[in-house]
């Protein structure tokens, strides 16, 4: 089993931020600076082309740490951030850029690329969860959530389908094509975010994926527009979702 | 112009509750007990078969008053609450009960019934808004919202389409059949709530109605299940929606 090694640490505004590695996978753990006992953990997945140090990750972590007293952790996806990029990664990214520049459909490139990254990332996230739960301020047996959009959803759905320790998840905004089997197997509460007018991801496909989740408790949030980014209110909504599902005894 | 007459008043937990009439239409106004200057107002519409004193109205008002410092007001719909029920009201309600008891479709009865009530209620709400804005603690020119589900949506959509003073609205959970024309004319921010698995209101019809709203800013919240009631988190979400749209300068 790979153990967790902290490589850097800083603290501000009541948030302790620690860089870590599990094996050769780097990540960041954000925690309440004044943490005393075990507290829930939310695993996060960054979007394609981004990385663990993207400001959206720090922003989401801040809401979870200061709003809920939770821990939040993110890993660099394979070929992203501080991780080496293979020749195949470079080819896939180049193919994606070509498709985008040509105005051609992205899905034929993105979907298999994301599937390949997810196959590698799912065991990495499970190993990181093993290692993070060894920390006394997280602990084994506590509630664990997952939030990821874009690539973070493509990794997160097979992860949540496979990992019984994750009991609530927020997903959104990637092509659903390869994710229907995972959706069937996911039964934990889900909040699913989509852009109603996305010119990239077909509306009907996103609605069909939402319909496929096996979860008795699931909510679809569809926002008008075709923004690439998350609608700002959804980060707040996701925080409240985790507050409800990971710490139901809280007021 | 009908003026507002207060008929009863009580206060608890920082909330001033006043019964009023505008003409022969009774309503309730909830306000911050310590209100000093003009503050936003949210008009509310109750569901079919309910009335102004339904606990959902008081609950929503409490969130708006204590959470946002806003005023909230509801009217009894025609033939509901303390208002007289006409022979035609009694016939329509009896026809609805027969359809429900027989397991027959409700829409052929509910839709025209709601259209008739809305035709009467829309001018009543506009007159009440005139009168409420005469109060110094509300004032003219301030932000006004509307929230209504079920019958409250059937009344609220033509109201919001016709009333330029209403600048943000939350709707949900009635048959959309007669509401597409109003949806086209509504351009203010909208939050639209539906049950994903409603056995009564066809999913595709609700999605089509959401698509029809003319609003650049609109969000669909679809929750799994076929509950008749609002998902509890949606009352909180609606409160935050109004806090954002009626008092954007607030933190």
What is the fold-level CATH name, i.e. the topology of chain A?
A: Rossmann fold
What general form of chain A does the structure show? globular
Measured on Cα atoms, how large is the radius of gyration of chain A? 17 Å
What's the total count of β strands of chain A?
A: 9
GO molecular function, one term (chains A, B): hydrolase activity
Protein name (chains A, B): Alpha/beta hydrolase
Keywords (chains A, B): Hydrolase
InterPro entries (chains A, B): AB_hydrolase_fold (IPR029058)
Outline the fold blueprint.
The structure is a homodimer of 251-residue chains.
Chain A lengths: L3 E9 L2 E8 L2 E8 L8 E5 L9 H14 L2 E5 L11 H16 L4 H26 L11 E6 L1 H12 L3 E7 L7 H6 L4 E6 L7 H10 L5 E6 L8 H15 L5
Parallel strand pairs in A: 4-5, 4-6, 6-7, 7-8, 8-9
Antiparallel strand pairs in A: 1-2, 2-3, 3-5
Helix pairs in contact in A: 1-7, 3-4
């Amino acid at each position: 089993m790979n153990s967790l090694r902290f490589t850097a640490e800083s603290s501000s505004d009541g948030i302790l931020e620690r860089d870590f590695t599990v094996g050769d996978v780097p990540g960041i753990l954000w925690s309440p600076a004044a943490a005393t006992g075990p507290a829930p953990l939310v695993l996060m997945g960054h979007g394609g082309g981004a990385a663990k140090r993207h400001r959206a990750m720090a922003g989401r972590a801040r809401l979870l740490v200061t709003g809920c007293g939770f821990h939040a952790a993110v890993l660099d996806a394979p070929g992203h951030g501080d991780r080496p990029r293979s020749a195949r990664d470079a080819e896939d990214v180049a193919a994606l850029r070509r498709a985008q520049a040509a105005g051609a459909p992205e899905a034929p490139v993105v979907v298999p690329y994301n599937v390949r990254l997810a196959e590698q990332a799912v065991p990495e996230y499970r190993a990181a969860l093993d290692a993070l739960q060894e920390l006394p301020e997280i602990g084994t047996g506590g509630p664990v959530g997952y939030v990821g959009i874009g690539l973070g959803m493509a990794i997160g759905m097979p992860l949540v389908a496979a990992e019984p320790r994750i009991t609530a998840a927020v997903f959104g905004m990637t092509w659903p094509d390869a994710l229907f089997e995972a959706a069937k197997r996911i039964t934990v509460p889900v909040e699913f975010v989509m852009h109603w007018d996305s010119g990239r991801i077909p509306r009907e496909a996103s609605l069909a994926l939402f319909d496929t989740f096996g979860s008795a408790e699931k909510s679809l949030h569809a926002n008008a527009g075709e923004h690439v980014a998350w609608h700002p209110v959804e980060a707040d909504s996701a925080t409240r979702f985790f507050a409800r599902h990971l710490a139901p005894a809280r007021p």
